[in-house]
Specification:
The chain has 140 residues and is mainly α. The chain is 72% helix and 0% strand. It has helices at residues 8-21, 23-31, 52-77, 82-102, 108-120, 122-139.
Length: 140
């Protein structure tokens, strides 16, 4: 059995890769008005409390998104044609959004809110890391 250790750096890398690969979807979501939900930042810029159920749902979605990210990163790295790379990035983005949408108890907005909150809240990162370390071996 392989044990995966998810560090703050890899969680941050995942956030950045999702922003990079998920640009159009994020831009579309940013234009929509959203009501504050659990996991979003409050007016002081601190992370709101994320429930254990949302952490569980996030973990399931994150592992699927990470699997897609790894698969497409390899494909993109092996391709030299810029238009083919862009097509692969678009495919990856769609696959990632679909993976989050099909995860029980998690929406794309909630997923992005938890990622954003984790970027500013070390305690939330720790909770997510702990949950991911426990869940990752079961997914393999």
């Amino acid at each position: 059995m392989i044990t995966r250790y998810i560090s703050a750096a890899s969680l941050t890398a995942a956030i950045l890769s999702l922003m990079f690969l998920n640009g159009p979807a994020s831009a579309q979501q940013a234009t929509q008005q959203k009501q504050p939900t659990q996991g979003q930042l409050d007016s002081n810029g601190t992370a709101a409390t994320v429930s254990d159920q949302k952490i569980e749902a996030f973990t399931v979605a994150y592992l699927q998104v990470d699997k897609i990210r790894q698969e497409y990163s390899a494909k993109i790295g092996a391709t030299s044609d810029p238009s083919a790379k862009q097509q692969l990035k678009t495919e990856a983005s769609k696959q990632m959004v679909q993976a989050v949408q099909t995860s029980p108890g998690m929406s794309v907005d909630e997923y992005n809110a938890i990622l954003a909150a984790a970027n500013k809240d070390p305690a939330l990162v720790k909770k997510l890391q702990d949950k991911l370390q426990k869940s990752a071996p079961a997914q393999q």
